Records
---
Amino acid sequence: MSTSTETIEQLATREYKYGFETEIETDQFAPGLDEDVVRRLSATKGEPEWLLEFRLKAFRVWQKMTAPTWHNLKIEPIDYQAISYYSAPKKKPELKSLDEVDPEVRRTFEKLGIPIEEQKALAGVAVDAVFDSVSVATTFREKLAELGIIFCSFSEAVKEHPDLVRQYLGSVVPYTDNFFASLNSAVFSDGSFIYLPRGVRCPMELSTYFRINAKNTGQFERTLIVADEGASVSYLEGCTAPMRDENQLHAAVVELVALDGSTIKYSTIQNWYPGDANGKGGIYNFVTKRGKAMANAKITWTQVETGSAITWKYPSCILVGDNSIGEFYSVATTNNWQQADTGTKMIHLGKNTRSTIVSKGISAGFGQNTYRGEVRVGKNAHNARNYSQCDSLLIGDRCGAHTFPYLEIKNTSAKVEHEASTSKIGEDQIFYCRQRGIPTEDAVNMIVSGFCKEVFRELPMEFAVEAQKLLSISLEGSVG
Amino acid sequence: MLLEIKDLRVKAEDKEILKGLNLSVNAGEVHAVMGPNGSGKSTLARVLAGHPGYEVTGGSITFDGKDLLELEPEERACEGVFMAFQYPVEIAGINNTYFLKAAVNAVRKYHGKSDLDAVEFMQLLRAKAKLLEMDQAMLGRSVNEGFSGGEKKRNEIFQMAMLEPRLGVLDETDSGLDIDALKIVSNGVNALRTPDRAMIVVTHYQRLLNYIVPDVVHVLTGGRIVRSGGRELALELEEKGYGWIEAETAGARG
Ligand SMILES: Nc1ncnc2c1ncn2[C@@H]1O[C@H](COP(=O)(O)OP(=O)(O)OP(=O)(O)O)[C@@H](O)[C@H]1O
Ligand SMILES: [Mg+2]
């Protein structure tokens, strides 16, 4: 191994910055999953009968399913009976201001640098922080309420806006959809709910920070965003997790409903514990994210995936309405022993539908990064357009990048373009930068951010800065 | 003495390339290094710059009183060692101007100076771009990406002009340049000739030395400097090739 490869390796060994636990009393179910657990979960949350029915139907379907194996991931079998399916902070506070939040929880948020403070919120970010499975703090709801915008935890939405939830829950991701989505539908814990009334543009970025905390507690977030005709919203989701030895399961479902002429922009920074340098521990992240765009509507998924031991995630768009638009911008990094199988599906059903896919995969260490993308053009989707660009960047020579584009075109007027590239941060490039006075680490960051710039450009300003920082942390020690 | 190389021995992948090389360069001087293909000229340049692919097995390099071999490549660059690459590297996605700003500010930081502000930087950039007749469009493109061979070489000297090093090591900067470009680049190099700066110019062609007139010409062959002389040595080499020197050296070694 040459000297510079060694340097790269050293850079990659920097420890996970956010690896700490919060001590907080939790009230949780014993491990195990059967119909009774589903009933108990629903009862604990005080849910209406129809929701229990939804969960039970999902559970029965899930029981007959097997975990998918088509992905390019090596996963140790998961024992679903060894997981606890409910956990909540013991005292469930009713909070008016952040001062009332459990100080332990607040300290955790502060360590993470999460902008939960009101000053930050005043700067334009309304924060709904989810701690474990239950929301403990919600800000700026009233201000949004004046505009008729509903932004609350999923559980609250079930209580306060049952008709909306009932109408749209499962309308984009049915409970039969896939193994992990069905599991989520049976046991989902909490998440966010957003509704924008007709013609309302949300005046601020909405943001939620999720955090996995209690030991052995599967996390099953459920998020539902509905933009009524002509409405628009930009939602940010960001997360970090404490260091753990055991693998932790996470199976979220996010559904977006963009009615005629509306716009939903959903941005994610995913920074869960990736496991240590030897591949021990780390979060298993199996996510189903999908949006349905009606006529003239637009859905944009932007994601920066730096964490988790395993990422299995394909934010997708069903372009149902004529002239609807779907976009997917993604940066996924895998360092050490991380594995990611991620991409998108763009399903063109309406006329003149357009989709754009920009995927940037970065692999370092022994990381394996797979892009899997599907573009489907239905037979009535006249003049559908898709542009896909999949670029891979390799750092070192023990990592891998894989690209699996799938095409299914049933309308001859469709125009589909695909570009792909694989490049390597070579020792030559690093030396060139160093010869000009730029240290290795800065050179790597510079090359990586250059590589990702088309995606970062899509992120809201503050998020872009954070994303860049995260990326450099997650790749530190990876170059030579 | 700005640069003093003594008995330098260098290996790469178990092959000894430099076998006891001596070279001294004073501030204000331009030294030309000529020699047959594979004789070790680029190796010398890379070792001066601290390329990690080479192992120095003996000898010393003193630069401005400091032990150069102790310094990391970026430290050498910040101390004022600049190498114009024989094969400049392409870096996709990084804008040339942005790259230069990062480099200029890295050097400034090393010397405890604050970053140039945007206005100062652009002024410097414009002045140097004019000196080398750089096309505006090239400044906005990714570093060397898709540049023609000659454009890459010109870009190297442009970078040198921006970074204002104490020692410029130019590895075959002339190859690939057309006649007009050769003049422009040479003018750029000559403009950087100052009493406190030195250059080592590696070339195969004495024509370059009509434009960049050297103080000393060296012949590197078999991993050593075997002959040094004035400008006329380059003319002699052009006429007779390297064979006679190699024969004489072999004879002298007995
Ligand atoms: N990193 C390396 N690993 C192995 N061998 C090397 C390495 N670098 C150079 N060499 C070998 O050392 C010798 C000198 O190479 P060098 O590039 O220094 O020659 P040069 O004098 O610059 O030649 P040219 O005039 O063709 O540019 C060559 O035989 C070359 O193959
Ligand atoms: Mg050479």
---
Amino acid sequence: MPTVSMKVNGVDVSGDVEARTLLVQFLRETLDMTGTHVGCDTSQCGACCVLMNGDSVKSCSVLAVQAEGAEITTIEGLANGDELHPMQDAFRQNHGLQCGFCTPGMVISAIDLVSKNPKPTEKEVREWLEGNLCRCTGYHNIVKAIQAGAQAMGG
Amino acid sequence: MTDTGIGAAVRRKEDHRFLTGRGTYTDDINRPGQTYAHILRSPHAHARIKSIDVSAAAKASGVVAVFTGADMAADGVGGLPCGWQIHSKDGSPMAEPAHPPLVTDKVCHVGDQVAVIIAESRTQAKDAAEKINVDYEELPAVIDMTAAIKDGSPLTHDDVAANICYDWHLGEKEPVDEGFAKAKHVAKIDIVNNRLIANAIEPRVAIGDYDPSSGEYTLYTTSQNPHVIRLLMGAFVLQIPEHKLRVVAPDVGGGFGSKIYHYAEEAILTWAAGKVKRPIKWTAERSESFISDCHGRDHVTHAELALDGDGKFLALRVSTLANMGAYLSTFAPCIPTYLHGTLLAGVYTTPAIYVEVKAVFTNTVPVDAYRGAGRPEASYLLERLVDRAAREMGLDPADIRRKNFIPADAFPYQTPVALQYDSGDYTATFDAAIKIADVDGFAARKAAAGKAGKLRGLGYSTYVEACGIAPSAVAGALGARAGLYESAEVRVHPTGSVTVFAGSHSHGQGHETTFAQLVSDSLGIPFENVDVVHGDTGKVQFGMGTYGSRSLAVGGEAIMKALGKVIDKATKIAAHVLETSEADIEFKDGQFTVAGTDKSMAFGDVALTAYVPHNFPHETLEPGLDESAFYDPANFTFPAGCHICEVEVDPETGVVEVIDFTAVDDVGRVINPMIVEGQVQGGVAQGIGQALLEECVYDESGQLVTGSYMDYTMPRASNLPNITVANETTLCAHNSLGVKGCGEVGAIGSPPAVINAVVDALSDFGVTDIAMPATPEKVWRAIQSAQAAG
Ligand code: FES
Ligand code: FES
């Protein structure tokens, strides 16, 4: 079994994985970091999004071994102690989540968007979310939250 | 109103854990020594099982056990029960075919459970499944309902003649015939309510666990109603008494109905955990969800509306085929009957209504409630029919509705289809929606769109729905095999903080917040001092769970009732301490005051005294402050409203864009407007999805064509508009809060508004109908054929 090492939320981690082990399985099952979710088996829902070297990736579509040496940020790594990341707080203030299952992926994806486009328009946000499904909110408040989060992040 | 009390847009308690990845969903739970299950499912829609050979799988690496239906049957395991019994016109009970958790002799749909493989890892279980040899004899499958009820059609179950589960009716035929005899105009419609898949983003998960030392089973499951699962599975399937069976439904990632039912996997895993004496986890893969989660809707209806010369409705006649799929799921039989037939008066004074419903078995996944459950089907056919009548008679679609609304002073209003509406003001929601949607400015917007080569259309829908299905006595008379009350316990701790144990279950609705607002408001204590516990039969006394928008109207009322008992008891304690009579105590803003004096006691002090009862008269005053209540409502509640949709159609491509959507709903008193708005937006998104994107499709052989997110079109952010939500309130007349329910209104009101808008946009071409989902292809074809017809 190959061993992989990476930095997850600033902490060096390593573990034995099968060649076919997905990054999301490594996070959830080996590291017991269950904040990253799995909602599909066709890379469509985005519940599994994490940042890999700063870019959002679907961790169900990345092999753990592909993340060798990478810096991974998951939903667990965003808040500063009890203080939410501005994007997390924007989701809370704008009721951008209901059941919370899509939320980790949404927040991660939103942070990636803002890093690339600090002041996204509503249309840009909606298009960016192409790869993230939410069944609860109708997206209205997610879009609002992302725009508010972008502003709070200094965009 | 305080800033955390009733009516305040309090930010949600649950959000911090969800936003930091600290929710506990079922798949996040792992038990020591856990094994993993894989369910081997039928690849055929209909086949006899001649033999199953599991020997190679049982020997495969990592495999702990393999079980088939024969093993469960040998253990006396029962079939999955149905919670509702419908009787046909002739008085005979519905057909109720056996529904084994693992089949024994025959599979009835693609995805039917054939065997379970339990192994040390998920992949080992899955790999071993490929070593199971099932010898199937394929049988002809029946997929289409119209074909299913024809003579000579293949039978889904040998003992169910013509695949008919029941042939039910409601209403008086004669007055309806009279209405039609008098009519100046009759509008007719043939309509399909497309089959949908709920697709909560969290797939279903179950963990079965057995503790040999206590003999207690625990099932962790993605359920909307853990107590109901405990009852159904314990009493009917596995014969495990309640005190030896705990069901935990922790954070659940959306349900929309699909997680109400008692599913086979829950019984299989619980039973198998007892066999292998180790915990077992099963996590559905999404493609598995598509063929094992109950589907929704799937009605085929013919309806006729009789009108007088002014457009006043005289009578309505409706005939529906409702797909049950291959087996009866928990609530399936009541959806097309008591949640559909009874809603056909809508918001109108139609004096005579007759509806008949044939429920049909087919070789497809079972169909049960999906957000709205029966009511979207009713509102869709009614609102399409009303629009059609208006068009045919040259009447304005707004005028024809107004003319037929039940007037605000007519409540309580008895409809001809069993329900008695307690309150409402349909003109008020209608007027408000028309104003917010700026209907006056529509002509100008249409003209502008026309200049840009787009067809603009506006569609109305006015609806009423029935929530908080109740009361138990009525539900029982209609065939419910359970009571439909709710239960709550309010436990006041010695220092005055409160834990509420709620029988409702939250899977996105924000109960931890809304219920805490009720407590904070009633007891005058800080919102932060209240926690809500739900979803664990080991903690919560009892519960009927969450579906049918019942959590606030029934569950919230149970909490209010328990709070009332707490206040009564606390008043007694305060009277004792303040040395006065109970009658002299006033309770306000968290203070118990002796009327007309400045002698008072804070709630927290009363709580402490309750647990430090140094000088209580023990014959008349018990220590402690912990009260529970069961609340059985007097009636359904009847949210209603008006939705207005504006679309633009590109005639070149057939693409429909929803430009604006306005929902004005009367959901009764609003406890948390932020949450209500979110619930309505989510429901509207699902309704727009049904109208424009979503459809579950089977091919003739019973293979699910739309079996993944690549094929089943889920609404994405770019498919949806901003959704403007407002409320016009009349209070529910029979509960203390005056609340009605808001979870389903969006999905009930929106589909007809969208399709009426699309038809309106295409009306210049002479198009009068478009089926859901109105995909670009369908719209484009409708335009082409209308043009060809000239
Ligand atoms: S789990 Fe759905 S995209 Fe990764
Ligand atoms: S909040 Fe439930 S799926 Fe998005």
